[in-house]
């Protein structure tokens, strides 16, 4: 984290950032294309054999058959020659032909992308409606002059929604709304009615995440001086609410773009459940069959979409901030921290007690004992949470899987958080890598990593970490730029404050806390991403009692034995609520941990010059 930038003029930083971001995006695109192009050779498997199996599983893999495939696809020329030939194709609008079907790649990629964009638009609309519902109480109260205290909003509800597994929502919706009630079609892609179930499965967790971020940003805005001045001048609550929303959104706008890209390429599980021919499912099939041209075309489309979303998100953020960002005259409120009262401590204590009690009750039991006579047994004294499809005790697997689930997910979350803080202070250089990593679905990243490291917990952890840090880094980067443009920091530089003092006492504390709350909100999602890779054979392997793997194994029986999925789903929901409630406490705040100041010292640090009284997006003169 360099401190030189603390004394550079905002205009110079802006120009250099734009050029650096362009270079970063170009290099990241070239790098991911090269990795995908070398995938068959990185895996150590014969690509000709993989293509033969994909074309005809019954054909004998003789040397003559394999040699014919190598000659037909030009595999004898080597990976670098194939990669060079492919790179010249997109410039001519040609993505090549499929190694498996022989069809042109471009129509298949465009068709899958069109389907995924349609599904993304519907899911994003659901997410926006849910975001508005979760943040509306805080916005209305603040606009009426009775703002809520920090940490008292809809964080627990949003965390529970964000922690819901997409594939679980998809399966439950399929069983209840399509099979039982017959209200909607169960699968296919024929009309608007086919959009409803997959849009709900994708939009509800995304709305919980975005709703929590918006609800977390609003209370600090209502502490700024302009809010009181506007109210005293007779402005209506509606106008104040609109201005407050505009003031709070700049740091979060990049997240909306990242979520949209994630909904487009990361919906592999939902597309599989509902048989939706989207781009994510196309990329997964190409990766499994080592259909290199189809995989390269799919990844190229996702990466370009991620880059476009990043550029548009950054432009929207700058538009919302207005000239205050350029002229370093943004008002920045002091971080709001509610006291750690007993009512606020009660929630995490209750959640932790219930979660630990369930884990402790399962530890004395054997999670690997198979009893085929007790398959899918209902809850009883012998099996308090019932049994799974092999007759194994669900409570035992819940207790023994805690370390593998929570421990690994927490480690990945910490690594992603640390990387995001580091990258957040280099927004231009990291823009391309962040957008490319976010555009890749965890499943595709898992395949790429497994090709090098092999399947297992280590490879799955690396793959999930590679795609978990970009949203955190985008959040950190937006906060860093906004904090550096604050008016009171301009005064600090004018009076000769050292760069390292500005960095460690002002910029870093203002960034670390919100990004930490964002990181713990993604903790259950990280656990589920690890589980999905294990379910596909790329992560934790059966019979490991990992929570997400246990949940995935129970999904085929959700209609007959819903209790088999209730245990791990409830545990993940409790984990989400516990993480968010703990992050809201001052004692566990990353801000306190980094600064090491006493309460009196924190009060002195947050006693900043009065915030500018100009409305959002304007410059105080």
From TrEMBL:
Record membrane topology: Multi-pass membrane protein
Membrane-crossing residue ranges in chain numbering: 21-42, 117-140, 161-183, 195-214, 248-274, 294-316, 402-431, 443-467, 519-541, 561-585
Primary localization class, coarse: membrane
Location of the region described as Disordered in the Swiss-Prot/TrEMBL record: 601-621
Any one Pfam family match given in the protein's UniProt record, by short name: BPD_transp_1
Alphabetical GO biological process terms: transmembrane transport
Keyword Protease tagged: no
Domain ABC transmembrane type-1 residues, every copy: 398-584
Extent of Low complexity compositional bias: 608-621
Cell compartments where the protein resides: Cell membrane
Keyword annotations of the record: Cell membrane, Membrane, Transmembrane, Transmembrane helix, Transport
Stored InterPro entries: BP-dependent_transpt_permease, MetI-like, MetI-like_sf
Family assignment from sequence similarity: Belongs to the binding-protein-dependent transport system permease family.
Protein name: Peptide/nickel transport system permease protein
Species for this entry: Allostreptomyces psammosilenae
